[in-house]
Amino acid sequence: HKMGIRHRTSHIWVIRKLDGKVQALLQKRSDEKDSFPGGYDTSSSGHIHAGDEPLYSATRELYEELGIKAEPSDLIPAGMFPVDYILPFHGEPFYDVETAFVFIYLKDVDEKELKFSDGEVTGVRWFDMDYIEKTIREKTEGFCVPPGGFMVAKKWCDENM
């Protein structure tokens, strides 16, 4: 991020349908994070290590960030999106240049049983997809969901749920 080197990431959207509405579980980022501290973000995401496949990275990130032990077959590939921006964080430029792979996780999740052991996540909350879309459109403070990732997940949900 300091050098603006393109890298790959996996983004996992934990999705459910409740009372006829599609919802996503968003994570609340730790206040200690360099980028978007304390913001609500994609259910789980992270860098894909050199030599790893996106699907393997996605299962690892779900476990590291939320304590969800997913099998590769539990994740549905939904698409990809590019990320390319520069923002200042702590007085320094933060470059985010990535190719992001998006996965959908549909298994039941009880947010009270999740474990946030890596210190990156401090909590989670379910939001209607319509509300998430509104926060992106209005650039609501406290939300940092990548618009490209949301659109990939929403398109998948619109076509499949």
Keywords:
alpha+beta, 23% helix, 161 residues, 7 strands
Individual helix count: 3
What characteristic shape results from the CA principal axes? globular
Radius of gyration, in angstroms, nearest whole number: 15 Å
Residue share in β-strands: 35-45%
H/E element sequence? EEEEHEEEHH
Tally of extended strands? 7
Query: How is the biggest beta sheet arranged?
Result: 7 strands, mixed
User: What is the helix content?
Assistant: 10-25%
Distance between the termini: 36 Å
Low-confidence stretches: none
What number is the mean pLDDT? 89
Structural class: alpha+beta
How would you portray this structure in words?
The structure is a single chain. This protein has helices at 54-66, 129-138, 147-160, and strands at residues 7-18, 21-29, 40-41, 44-47, 75-89, 92-105, 121-128. It has 161 residues and is α+β, with helices and mostly antiparallel strands. Strands 1, 2, 3, 4, 5, 6 and 7 form a 7-stranded mixed β-sheet that branches. The chain is globular.
Brief characterization of the structure:
By secondary structure, the protein is an alpha+beta fold. It contains 3 helices and 7 strands. Strands 1, 2, 3, 4, 5, 6 and 7 form a 7-stranded mixed beta sheet that branches.
